[in-house]
Design brief:
TIM Barrel; eight-stranded parallel beta sheet; 36% helix
Length: 381
Amino acid sequence: MEYRQLGKTSLQVSVVALGCEGFMNKSDEDVQAMVDYAHQEGINFVDFFSSNPQGRSAFGKAIQNHREDWIIQGHLCTTWKNGQYERTRKMDEVKAGFEDLLKRLGTDYIDIGMIHYIDAKKDFDEVFHGEIMEYAKALKAQGIIKSIGISSHNPLIAMLAAQSGLVDVIMFSINPCYDMLPPSENVDDLWDDKNYEKPLFQIAPERQHLYEYCESHHIALTVMKAFGGGDLLDENLSPFGVKMTPLQCIHYCLTRPGVVSVMAGSHSIEEMKEAIDYCKADFQAKDFAEVLSHVPKHSFIGHCVYCGHCAPCSKQIPIADIHKFTDLCHQGEVPETVREHYAMLSHHASECIECQLCMPRCPFEVNIIEKMKMAQKLFGY
């Protein structure tokens, strides 16, 4: 298993993590087997958004002897009504739902207290300037939650949260299809086929800016909907009309700036193994570029997606890393942390001899030589 630092915290989380959907409506024994397998394979991170009492209790029993081995992203503002979970902003329900989470998971703290599902500006204003954020801050002051986060599908709202200085973690919906769509307060727009009927070009700038901002400000992005609810794994359901594998979807997410972990909603040990295999897979098995470079109607041409096809460089320059660090610099400003990471590279843009061996390898026709010159100008070498 591979691990990444969770933003500003000292926590090291597995790059493949667990969504909680797979634990619903299963016996305690089945959940125990899934949790034991995940633990054995090095997974230490889980998102628990659902307020399903059975799922919460089953997972709590499964980790009761090794709670300290798990980093839990648990949600505030979810409640259980009429046999299903609902988002709530009513303080009595918020408090009761969170207390139920602690009780059923058998713990007295949650590592990341996630304020659930904020996509609209009005909702953001009410949450961040009202009782819910005050409650979250009080829980943090008491050590009941260690960090505050939010979940969102709207890059404009996620950016407001990132810029607020109040959150350390943002769970965001990331995959190649969603990345091409403009921001919306209606989450259904992400999987509405009509939004993919017209040609789309490159990653929406609001999404790219969010990823880059989170990377440069050490705000951790954790990923939901990496497989598009399973649609991306089926060419008949995919908005792109092409099939991706779980490994390609995970690799796409983990190559976005700011991303530390993908919450894979595995419903069985077999599905869990498919996701965990990411850490053992070779480049060819994870490579998403060939798929994305042949998507009908839609195009990433001219935009570096950090896929790594430009390697190997004749001078051993890590081209994709240099592109990523260059993209993190806006209007010529180089954040100190980005400068430090660039300095730590074994080779730098100034070593480029313009042999152009990398250029024909790029599936997206990026002008790599010009990007190298831009990097040298920004960083000075």
